[in-house]
Amino acid sequence: MYALLGALSLPGHERRAFVHGEDILAVQRMLHTDFERSVNHWLADQGWLMVVANYEYAFGYLLVTLVALVWLYRRRPRHYPWARDVFAISTLLAILCFWLYPVAPPRLLPDAGFIDTVRLGGTWGSWGSPMVEGANQLAAMPSLHIGWALWVAVTLFRSGAAWWARIASIGHVLVTFTVIVATGNHYWLDALGGAVVVGIGVLAADLARGKPVMWDASASRRLWRRGRPAYTGAVTDTATDAKTPVPPKAAQLAAARTFAAEHGKPVKAVVQRIGRAGARVLLVGGDGALGDVVVPSVETGEALIEAVEGLERSEWDADTVAATVIGPEHRRRMAGPLARR
């Protein structure tokens, strides 16, 4: 869409962009808030800091936004569509503004006195550098740098992310605002425009779902899931070391007897540990049907096998696998609730 609208630019696109840029600067002067040039001149004298700011402008907002999208997809799959919709609506609104109301950034205004820090620092990959010479540079209003930074912050706050991540997102917004102004790429009113399009995106996404979307983080409030630790002897032997194994309950015994009666004897029974949940007795009937009974420990599972007539202790080996017949109903259950919709 961005490329399409760029190819279909309205008449007088460039002329109107410079007029609009001068108009915005005039409004800020009237409000006595035209501080951009002073900050821009200060940064131009800072050497390495100017180069860092240029690269932050070129790549920082892209990297942070990408990380936020990946995190949402991994940790909030049910709510990822909401965040995606806000992002898409905000970005499309900004692109439409670029087309209808082009604005030249301060550094391109011929008589405004701004220094083009990108060209001064020889920054690779930023607006004004040879790498993106053909890109649309007349798109200062609204600032998508601020828009995307605010989108990240809103997403992290609504998701109940870790406290340090939420604070970092605020810091990212402040740094982004400082950079876009100091490098001469935006007026502060552009940042306000970025906030407006994100606000509209949030409102539209909320209205589409009937209410504001909020969700909680996991109890640990981590940004990423930790890898599951491998089982250790200390973990797996906990039930084995118990002096008094829990006997199987009447319901567990009844379930095993019912399975044996319905699916034929002998029933192959394989006891498997399932972590903190205890163990399960996997049952393979005479007709190949699969079933299981969850018990508190391996010892309880072995006691269940001894107590139910027709169950024989087995291992999950080639013979047991060969005796198993997985029917359509079992495949449907294994596929989970999403596949059954």
Please write out the topology.
Elements: H1 2-7, H2 13-30, H3 36-44, H4 48-75, H5 80-100, H6 117-121, H7 144-158, H8 163-182, H9 188-209, H10 233-236, H11 250-263, E1 267-273, E2 279-284, E3 290-295, H12 298-307, E4 311-313, H13 318-322, H14 328-335
Parallel strand pairs: 1-4
Antiparallel strand pairs: 1-2, 2-3
Helix pairs in contact: 4-7, 4-8, 5-7, 5-9, 7-8, 7-9
Descriptive notes:
54% of the residues lie in helices and 6% in strands. The protein has a four-stranded mixed beta sheet, covered by helices on one side. It has two domains: 208 residues; 102 residues, no CATH class. The chain has 341 residues and is of the alpha+beta class. A hairpin with a 5-residue loop joins strand 2 and strand 3. The radius of gyration is 31 Å and the shape is elongated.
Number of strands: 4
Shape call: elongated
Number of discrete domains: 2
> What is the topology, as strand order, of the major beta sheet?
3-2-1-4
Strand content: 5-15%
Rg result? 31 Å
Q: What percent of residues adopt helix (DSSP H or I)?
A: 40-55%
Which consecutive residue ranges, at least 5 long each, have pLDDT under 50? Answer: 216-221, 228-242
Largest sheet, strands/sense/barrel = 4 strands, mixed
Helix and strand composition category: alpha+beta
Task: Give keywords.
single chain; 341 residues; alpha+beta; 2 domains; four-stranded mixed beta sheet; 14 helices; 54% helix
